[in-house]
């Protein structure tokens, strides 16, 4: 017999586990144990090296964004600095830009001028070449007689306003403007309206032919700061050019050294502007008033053009017989009418009475001038109906002539 102690030793596994384990069951169809695949250990891949090209590309994109943004910001800043709003310029300085009119031996008799202080106006000499009489008209209708002091280089003329002019003087730029800066031209139309138009920059100028008419010769050119940086002069539209501020500065003072004195014209027949003069209606625009306006427009325009034969078709046969062509011509050889206004229209005895006010420029030695050369006239014309409309049958003075400086 085996001793009890020996049995205990046979039934105990000395590693602490009780009894031998049964053999591990192998599933049917399983491959032999020798064919079992060992467990594959997955190792962590090494860290990826930095993508240098990606970093470069990202930096390049950021750089382009910064450069583009900076360029765009710079463009907007420069555009704001060099662009110009001509409407704002007109509102800011228009009161000191004047219309220039004259009855002269040569030239156009009309232009634009700029008031520079000390009763001096700069304009284009073509507007006042050999004048017998000259005047300036402000934007709000104030009229002042003016005398030609002389002409300077590049076709600039200097006028002395006879009476005080209550408009602020404009400043001429002390230096040349930015060549890329926008500029605006202010000038009058033939009908007497002040207009503003852009003329480009010095480096990118707009052709003056696109904006010019004869009445704009002498027109000042402004920059964004409302300073005068030039003036348009020339003998005609095709030859118009912008005179620089340096030339204007030298002439905008009393007794300018570069000024050639001019005593005016001495001709026996002078002309003013040749554009139509249409009286303003200050009465209701009835059919009768419009007919009277049309007759007076033709009369004043043809008189200004010295078409003394053509104007006679607007006379009745009675007036044509009483006023010979030679007498009509002799009485208007130096006269220029402007600023006409019809203030009253009445009917009587089958005719129409038209009261009209206008300003006349003429030679101081003309018939009835009495040493003056610019008057306001208050006349009443008698018009009679005909198959061709209303015809002039005569005229009479309503009030005594007054100097055109008086309102």
From TrEMBL:
Biased amino acid composition, Acidic residues: 1-10
Residue ranges with Low complexity bias: 26-43
Top-level division of the source organism's lineage: Bacteria
Keyword Hydrolase tagged: yes
GO-annotated molecular function: peptidase activity
InterPro entries (UniProt xref): Peptidase_S1_PA
Keywords: Hydrolase, Membrane, Protease, Transmembrane, Transmembrane helix
Positions of the UniProt region annotated as Disordered: 1-46
Listed GO biological process terms: proteolysis
Residue stretches spanning the membrane: 56-77
Protein name per the record: Serine protease
Source organism of the structure: Kribbella antibiotica
